[in-house]
């Protein structure tokens, strides 16, 4: 875990922003926020870390609900039963970022990690994530205004993994806070949600979808950056979304 200092950050967020406030991204306004100190994992959660949760019984779900029933039967899965291990696309496990994990799956992991360690782990908010990704910079990338070459993994970033697959975590230099791969490789789930709208058009606090940040190995160069965000429903799994933990 890396200590992220308190600071001021200008970004798009809900009007009258405060932690826990949610609204449709179409309503976001540019504003200056005060970010309290927190900790963030230096890398995205890896397959090794996730698989430990599976083996300990913390990252499993009923046979009828698991998305991996139709996945290829590759180790560590067996052909004669359901599989709780996320599919690695044949790219390898170990220190590669875990993929094919939904927002709900990530909640299972942070709950398990909290129970095992006695400390409260969680997903970062979208504002915390962006502030940490900047690493003290005011530009679109922690290292400057332009993406450059071989600084990240995306389709056109100049790495040997470009547009093909994920890279092992920490394959590129960290930002000034000591965080790796905040741009590209895998997009990362955050805790900030998109709420359901009422018939009157007003947002309520029921979360319909969640944001994921940063872009990924499959994104083109125009679609990665510390300001990149998208949202999707919490059961969604893909080979370009992972997460990292905060506390």
Descriptive notes:
This protein is α+β, with helices and mostly antiparallel strands. The protein has a 4-stranded mixed beta sheet. The protein has a two-stranded antiparallel ribbon with strand order 1-4. A two-stranded antiparallel ribbon has the order 2-3. A hairpin with a 5-residue loop joins β5 and β6. InterPro entries: CTDL_fold, Sulfatase_Mod_Factor_Kinase, SUMF_dom, SUMF_sf. This is Sulfatase-modifying factor enzyme-like domain-containing protein.
Number of helical regions? 3
Strand tally: 8
- Sheet of most strands: 4 strands, mixed
Give the H and E element order.
EEEEHHHEEEE
Q: Order of strands in the sheet with the most strands?
A: 7-6-5-8
C-alpha geometry: globular
Residues in β-strands, percent: 15-25%
Quote the distance from N terminus to C terminus. 9 Å
What is the helical fraction, as a range of percent? 10-25%
Radius of gyration, Cα only, in angstroms? 18 Å
Structural class: alpha+beta
Which whole number gives the mean pLDDT? 90
* Low confidence ranges: none
InterPro entries: CTDL_fold, Sulfatase_Mod_Factor_Kinase, SUMF_dom, SUMF_sf
Protein name: Sulfatase-modifying factor enzyme-like domain-containing protein
Give the structure's gist in a few sentences.
This protein has 247 residues and is of the alpha+beta class. The protein has three helices and eight strands.
Question: Features of this protein?
Answer:
about 250 residues; alpha+beta; four-stranded mixed β-sheet; two-stranded antiparallel ribbon; 3 helices; about 15% helix; globular; SUMF_sf; Sulfatase_Mod_Factor_Kinase
